[in-house]
Predict the 3D structure of the following.
Amino acid sequence: MRHDIGFKQFSLTIIGIWAILFAFLPFCLIVLVSFFGHSEQHLIEPVFTLQSYQQLNNTLYWRVFEKSFVIAGLTALFCLLLGYPFAYLIARTRSRYKNFLILLIIIPFWTSSLIRSYALIAIIKAKGILNAFLLTLGVIQQPLSILFTNTAVIIGLVYNLLPFMILPILTNIERLDDRLIDAAHDLGANWLTTFSRIIIPLTMPGIIAGLILVFLPAMTIFYVPDILGGAKSILLGNLIQNQFLIAQNWPFGAAISTVLTLVLATLILIYLWTTRGKQRNWL
C-alpha cells in the first residue's frame, strides 16, 4: 500500500515538474515577450510597451480570428458527427474484431500528420483519386475544385484530429451500464428516446473532452492550411508562425499567442461554469 502511494506521489511530482518546465514557464516567457518592443535590428527590445496588443486592433486580424474560430468549430462538429457513431460501434462490438478496430484508430499516429496531409493532396486534387472515381461513376461532369480551399483545410483537420474525438467518447461508452439501457426499454422508450435521454447525457463528458481536444489544436495547426489551403487560407497558427519565423516580430507573435490562449481558456471556464450542475447529473 505504501509502495503504491509512493509511486503515485513520484508520478505526480514528475508530471508537475514536466508541466512547469515545458508548459507553464514557456507560457510565462511568451507573455513577457509580448510586452517587449521590436525593431529591425533586434528580435526583442526589453522595453515595456503595449504596441503589440494595440496592433491587434485591426480589422484584418479580427477576420483571421473569426475565420479560425469558424473553421475550428466546423472541424469539431464534423469530428463529432463522424466519431461518435464509430466510437459507439467499437464499444458495442463484442467480438475479437474490437481490438482490430481500435488499432485502426491508433494506426494514423504511427505516421507523421504532415505526411498524411500531403497524401490528401493525391486524393482531393483536380486529377486525384476522388475526382477520378466520381467522374467514372458519372456523378460529376467536371473535376471538383477542392484543393486550396477552406473545404480542403477542414477535410485535412478532420482527418488528422478525428482520433482525438473517438478515443474519449469510446472510453465513456464502454463505461455505460447496460442495465440503464435495458430499464429504458422496459419502460417503453424507443431507440431514439434511449439514445437522446440516456446514452448522450451519460457520455457527455467524453463528448466535451473530444470537442476540446479537437477545437484547440484546430485553431493553431499551421501546416494543414499551408499545404491544403494555399496562400489564401491564413489561420491563427499561420499568423503566429509568420510573425515568429518570417516577419521576425516576436513580440507581436507572442501577443497573438497570449490572446488566443486567454480566449480559449475563458471559453472553457465559462462553459464549465454554466454546465457545472448538469455535469454533476451526468456523472
